[in-house]
């Protein structure tokens, strides 16, 4: 079976968190991911502007230059159908509501649990697949 290819942007300023997510994604045998990285919200917006092939964003909320809330709002203005999943260590009910209000489609608490990440990926990849 040939794995499906998907393009994901990981917006994450922390090196360890980025490497963890990248490792988890590359070990999934039924998907093949092309992974882009943004180290701040401004870069995330610029990468989404310049790459129509991105079909999922994993968005850290607390980043320098531009936070994940503002970056998500700008990305959703350009590409309202692009799924953005917030990821943050700050996972109070208020944080979740704020992320969803900014336009995030879903929420992952850090440290990201692989058992929770997989169903979220499946959900948004199947939505993308159905739009093609």
Describe the structure.
The chain is of the alpha/beta class. The chain has one domain (4-131): Response regulator (Rossmann fold), CATH 3.40.50.2300. Helices cover 46% and strands 23% of the residues. The protein is built from 5 helices and 5 strands; from the N terminus they run E-H-E-H-E-H-E-H-E-H. Strand 4, helix 4 (93-102) and strand 5 (106-109) form a beta-alpha-beta unit. Helix 2 (41-50) packs parallel to helix 3 (68-78). It is globular and about 35 Å long. The model has no long low-confidence stretch (mean pLDDT 90).
Q: Any chance you could write out the topology, listing elements then pairs?
A:
Elements: E1 4-11, H1 15-26, E2 31-38, H2 41-50, E3 56-60, H3 68-78, E4 84-88, H4 93-102, E5 106-109, H5 114-131
Parallel strand pairs: 1-2, 1-3, 3-4, 4-5
Strand content: 15-25%
User: Number of helical runs?
Assistant: 5
CATH architecture: 3-Layer(aba) Sandwich
Principal-axes geometry comes out as globular
Task: Work out the radius of gyration.
Answer: 14 Å
Helix content: 40-55%
CATH topology type: Rossmann fold
Structural class: alpha/beta
Query: What is the CATH superfamily classification?
Result: Response regulator
The biggest beta sheet reads: 5 strands, parallel
